[in-house]
Amino acid sequence: SQTIHQWPATLVQPVGSPLSLECTVEGTSNPNLYWYRQAAGRGLQLLFYSVGIGQISSEVPQNLSASRPQDRQFILSSKKLLLSDSGFYLCAWRLTGSSYNSPLHFGNGTRLTVT
Amino acid sequence: DQQVKQNSPSLSVQEGRISILNCDYTNSMFDYFLWYKKYPAEGPTFLISISSIKDKNEDGRFTVFLNKSAKHLSLHIVPSQPGDSAVYFCAATYGGATNKLIFGTGTLLAVQP
After folding, report:
1. Which position has the higher pLDDT, A43 or B72?
2. Average pLDDT for residues B10-32, to the nearest whole number?
């Protein structure tokens, strides 16, 4: 069976510091991978998605970047965090080639607080 | 531009009664809708979905209704149980959305024992 791991669970970082959040999926090959963010009072906003190694699509202009160095690894980064980057970050996956309406499977998320 | 809206941030229901969570959307291209359930400090988990060719889909205690003309869907939970207390997200997509699910802001359901 497939599992998704996301870490760390919580993170407190000062403004201006770098960020690296990691997500890995086990039990499947070449999954579609996603980064979502839930900010206070807002829904889940899609930040990035990837359909393969090195292939990243960005949904919204922002202070963050994503990379996919390996098939089942998805990394969310920032060089300098802003206060507005605080939120709950969720990694998700879907089977490659699955229908557009097949559900996403989420990790447990990372609570990021920028101080 | 919030294409999927959940206008009730919270809902409180007595155990055993019906919970009705509502969702509205603006993009007429959406043709598939999903509900997710989220407990604190966990990721959302898929609950139930409905295609636009249907107006109702039922799975145990959970039923989703779709009114395309009103661009409105609702999730009914009958009977409600304390373990149903969670945040519920509505999501929508369509074939041209290139793998994207568009989520609403969520409704916090509290089921009182």
Report:
1. B72
2. 96
The Cα–Cα gap between A97 and B93 comes to: 16
- Rounded mean pLDDT, B47-67: 96
Q: Name the residue among A49, A100, A105 with its Cβ closest to that of B93.
A: A100
Residue of A30, A11, A28 whose CA lies nearest to A19: A11
Which pLDDT does position A1 carry in this prediction?
83
Specify the pLDDT at position B57: 97
Contact list, B36 vs chain A (CB under 8 Å): 103
Whether B48 contacts B32, CB under 8 Å: no
- Of B99, B100, B103, B108, which to mutate for an interface test with A (greatest number of A Cβ within 10 Å)? B99
pLDDT digits (tens, 9 = 90+) for B37-53: 999 888 999 999 999 99
Residues in a beta bridge with A44: A38
